[in-house]
Amino acid sequence: MGVTKKQAFIDLPAVCSAGGVVRLPGSKSLSNRLLLLSALSAGETEISGLLASDDTARMLDALRILGVRIEPQGVSGVRVQGVGGRFPVRKAALFLGNAGTAFRSLTAVLALAGGDYTLSGVPRMHERPIGDLVDGLRRLGAHIDYLGNENYPPLAIRPGTVRPGGCVQIRGDVSSQFLSGLLMALPLGGVETAVEVTGELISRPYVEMTLAVMARFGVEVIREGGRRFVVPAGSAYRSPGRVRVEGDASSASYFLALGALGGGPVRVEGVGADSVQGDVRFAEALAQMGARIDVGDRAITARAPASGRLHGIDLDANAIPDAAMTLATTALFAEGETTLRNIASWRVKETDRIAAMAAELKKLGATVDAGADWLRIHPPSGGLSSPPEGVDTYEDHRMAMCFSLAAFGAPVRINDPGCVAKTFPDYFARFAEVTQAVPVIAIDGPSASGKGTVAARVATALGWHYLDSGALYRLTALAAQRAGVTWDDEQALAVIAARLNVRFDSDSVWLAGEPVSAAIRSEVISAGASQVAAWPAVRAALLFRQRLFRRAPGLVTDGRDMGSVVFPDAQTKIFLTARVEVRAQRRYQQLRENGMSASIQPILQDLRERDERDSQRPVAPLRQSEEACLLDTSDLTIEQAVEKVLAWHGEAV
Ligand SMILES: O=C(O)C1=C[C@@H](OP(=O)(O)O)[C@@H](O)[C@H](O)C1
Ligand SMILES: C=C(OP(=O)(O)O)C(=O)O
């Protein structure tokens, strides 16, 4: 289940359990720090386990433009030829996307580098503050101009009279990346410089990570209390030769949550107890919610609580701003409310994450309260609702990944899923590997083949849900007729299909509160259904609607494109047919039993024409897909056909 960058949405099936092993992609924060310090070092550095994503691509591109030689090595490694503190290219324009870790650190480094540089990013990057860092750098004598709004990128950096030394103050309450960037840049000055943080220092573990990475490259920053850091005279980066990037602890959070929600165990490999990433402490928060967690040296495992259900928590999440987002969607399934505090930085990340999270959680039925720096989630009382318009992701990779967890409650449509490329391009494929979707038996076949009768009986036998997908097309035809819309008006029909107010119960179909089981079976509406079903816009409008029927414990569905288009991942696919003469005979008998007069010839003729139309139409034509088992019921009773389907299903599980 991969996604492309431009894909409008991905429909995640409802998930009933999760378990397995995930080898984590490299840490974004470590990858970009290691790349930068390798480039600034004397000597060559081999980095393995590097993250391949948009954020690291922006850093790699920038360093190459600055004249750093970087060659790929193996599957996920690079060899970086360090420049010994001086970039060969003294004038360049750098585009840094929405990579905070690249933008902030390169601003600091280039401000002390003595060249002419412009730094820009995507529109959202230009809304993410950088004033506190620029102020700190200007105090050191850097020459930086704002090219757009004051205190925000894009920036122009010119050679200044930079005199590191003494003590420079920097604010730490908007982003820790300002302090991290400044600290990483100061060894370029060569003289002792102290940095003093004013205001609160948020996201502190990321500063610890910065100090750990600098130490690995030979620069030991001296700490004096919690807010003063001294970069000693004569500090210079030296390559450690080889470094390996840990797995990304923030990316681990989604899979650990899956383990906690879906039974588990889910084991993430690549981070563990000795990690330098603060986000490993997400596992503790999950344990507080009741999950069973094992933290090993290089792996973490999560399982659901013995009681089965997580419970809400009240947490100061300042130290784990990224992974804390995962708690917000995990909270949808917890007992009681969850409050996340001290998360003001969420407002200036890829989007205003407090506002975005609140808006989308509400769409799923949660009650949400939010303040300037906190968020409280009350899980939906009557089960999750799944908005047909999809969950919006605000060009924020973490929104997309967090909301994949909603699939534990209902099928969910995630809009713009390609935004995960910022840190985890194959996220959805990995998600599919460790989750077990609610099973589907998809029965496709031509008109009057008996597939509906067989499917409904199989559903009853298994205690599963049943979807007669053809009924949705019939309902669209009927609703259109009632609204005075003709069956050739594709766009108007699509609007009707999207807004169908329909309810199925055990033996009736309801349209806008009125029973219509008989009305939708009339010959006129049957012909209308076939006509409206040929319109691509109608099929698109009904796609998610059909997928919404996939709920635990399972779904049996019949139609024309159930196995090929609507549920391509169905566990059991059947193409159910019968000779056209047999189908005509069955339809004839059915009509007679219902007291209608009928003769066989026109029925036969009509079925032949309908077969032709259904198999020739350009959108979702009726044909047996390769994986589908062929069930010819010409010489079978209904009971025999049902038994056959159940037997095939038994083999598939
Ligand atoms: O230094 C880093 O690598 C990061 C620091 C954090 O940002 P803030 O310090 O802005 O909270 C975090 O959210 C970001 O994803 C990565
Ligand atoms: C805040 C994030 O990114 P950035 O490094 O751009 O700040 C993030 O990855 O959640």
Automatic annotation (TrEMBL):
ATP binds at G445, P446, S447, A448, S449, G450, K451, G452, T453. Catalyzes the transfer of the enolpyruvyl moiety of phosphoenolpyruvate (PEP) to the 5-hydroxyl of shikimate-3-phosphate (S3P) to produce enolpyruvyl shikimate-3-phosphate and inorganic phosphate. GO terms for molecular function: 3-phosphoshikimate 1-carboxyvinyltransferase activity; kinase activity. 3-phosphoshikimate binds at K28, S29, R33, S175, S176, Q177, S203, D322, K349. Pathway: Metabolic intermediate biosynthesis; chorismate biosynthesis; chorismate from D-erythrose 4-phosphate and phosphoenolpyruvate: step 6/7. It comes from Dentiradicibacter hellwigii. It catalyses: CMP + ATP = CDP + ADP; dCMP + ATP = dCDP + ADP; 3-phosphoshikimate + phosphoenolpyruvate = 5-O-(1-carboxyvinyl)-3-phosphoshikimate + phosphate. This is Multifunctional fusion protein. Coiled coil: none annotated. Its EC number is 2.5.1.19, 2.7.4.25. Pfam families: Cytidylate_kin (PF02224), EPSP_synthase (PF00275). Residues 20-429 form the Enolpyruvate transferase domain. Belongs to the cytidylate kinase family. Type 1 subfamily. Belongs to the EPSP synthase family. Residues 441-647 form the Cytidylate kinase domain. The active site is at D322. InterPro entries: Cytidylate_kin, Cytidylate_kinase_dom, Enolpyruvate_Tfrase_dom, Enolpyruvate_Tfrase_sf, EPSP_synthase, EPSP_synthase_CS, P-loop_NTPase, RNA3'P_cycl/enolpyr_Trfase_a/b.
